[in-house]
Amino acid sequence: MQVRDHAALEVAAGNWKPEEALERSRAEHADLVAHRDCEDGHRFYKSTAPNDEILVWIWEGPPPEAFSLKDTRWLYQITVRPDYRRRHIADNALGALEIQLADEGVAFLQLNVHKHNAAARALYVKHEFEVVAEFEKELHMRKTLERSP
């Protein structure tokens, strides 16, 4: 599911050609499947149905090195199974992640989102992310996290 979704997003954004998208997506996800990034502070979360099907998974970690951000974590991916979308699963998962990170003392959660991905943008706006930079095909967004009382 994840590899195909990522490939489709990159094609829709105009970043990749359809004939190369699946192969490029598989290559980019190879390290994730092996969990090699976990050593660098990256974390992966999933929520499953009673039959162990993954409903949603989240990848978060330190911001890309190019940004040199302090007290910040980066939301790299949040994906819900297509047949479970529009059921508030991503909304609940993102809310839980925000609480966890705030309780860990993280001040900001940031991300990039493709401009054409209206559903993802709506989710982030609902969660009070603000646009901090705009690029041709993407938005860079940030949310200030507040620790629970």
Write the layout of secondary structure elements.
Layout: H1 2-12, H2 18-34, E1 43-48, E2 54-61, E3 72-80, H3 89-103, E4 108-114, H4 118-126, E5 130-134, E6 138-144
Parallel strand pairs: 3-4
Antiparallel strand pairs: 1-2, 2-3, 4-6, 5-6
Helix pairs in contact: 1-2
Task: Describe the 3D structure.
The structure is a single chain. With 149 residues, the protein is α+β, with helices and mostly antiparallel strands. Helices cover 35% and strands 28% of the residues. It has a domain at 59-144: Aminopeptidase, CATH 3.40.630.30. It has a 6-stranded mixed β-sheet with strand order 1-2-3-4-6-5, with helices on both faces. Strand 3 (72-80), helix 3 and strand 4 (108-114) form a beta-alpha-beta unit. It is globular and about 50 Å long.
Summarize the structure.
By secondary structure, the chain is an alpha+beta fold. It has a domain of 86 residues: 3-Layer(aba) Sandwich (Aminopeptidase). The chain contains four helices and six strands.
Keywords:
single chain; alpha+beta; 6-stranded mixed β-sheet; 149 residues; Aminopeptidase
CATH C-level class of the domain at 59-144: Alpha Beta
| Span of the ends, CA to CA | 38 Å
CATH homologous superfamily caption of the domain at 59-144: Gcn5-related N-acetyltransferase (GNAT)
Number of E strands:
6
Helix segment tally = 4
Second CATH tier, the architecture of the domain at 59-144? 3-Layer(aba) Sandwich
Structural class: alpha+beta
Task: Give the overall average pLDDT.
Answer: 84
Oligomer kind: single chain
Report the portion of residues in β strands. Answer: 25-35%
Q: Low-confidence stretches at least 5 residues in length (pLDDT < 50)?
A: none
